[in-house]
Amino acid sequence: MCTLEKHDNVFILTLTGSSDLDEHRLSPPVIDSILSALSQAKAQATPGSILVTTSHGKFFSNGFDLAWAQAAGSRTGARERLHQMVEDFKPVVAAMIALPMPTVAAINGHAAAAGFTLALSHDYVLMRRDKGVLYMSEVDIGLTLPDYFAALFRAKIGSASVRRDILLRARKIKGEEAVKMGIVDSAHDSVEQVAEASMRLGKQLASRKWSGEVYAEIRKSLYPELCGVLGLAQKVVLANSKL
Q1: Is residue 235 part of a domain?
Q2: Residue 143: which CATH number?
Q3: Could you tell me the superkingdom of the organism this chain comes from (predicted)?
């Protein structure tokens, strides 16, 4: 599940589990919990708000809960459950792209498949240098890619060869390499350093006191194809303007 805390203008969304080995699998209840937290942050947003997403333990998120899908007991049932998670998660990505504040993903450990997608939905991504990988497992395990996943990767990763290696080679990428490939903004030596750097960046962004509504609309304008797939309309906003 997840928790949402607020410190001054910084919202901290934390993926929580029962132990340090919890993979933070994105089951329907976890997806609902994240979506509820994002709705709460949006409702409480003020100029200068910022969201930092992090996790407890070894994993940021290891993707959809495939064990829950397989527990349906039949191939048809498993496929239906997987489809449900894909459809349930789409509003989370949409909410991140439309959230009226800057967003930072603080990746403490592994981020795989839908977990990688969740991280990439943020404006800034920071991760550990020493442990943890980014990994899109779909080609390895025999699953096609949801349309909004593909649109997000096209929007956020400019290099076609990097996208190829991520999606068609299932390359596992560590922190320093992810920085060089332009996937993440910085890599750090420990959980503590990732947290400190994320909060420092968050406070720097919050200090600008930007209009969240304007920020969200400019963000959406950067990714027209992705917004089309997500069903996000764009609008003109004039905040604190004399026009």
Answers
A1: no
A2: 3.90.226.10
A3: Eukaryota
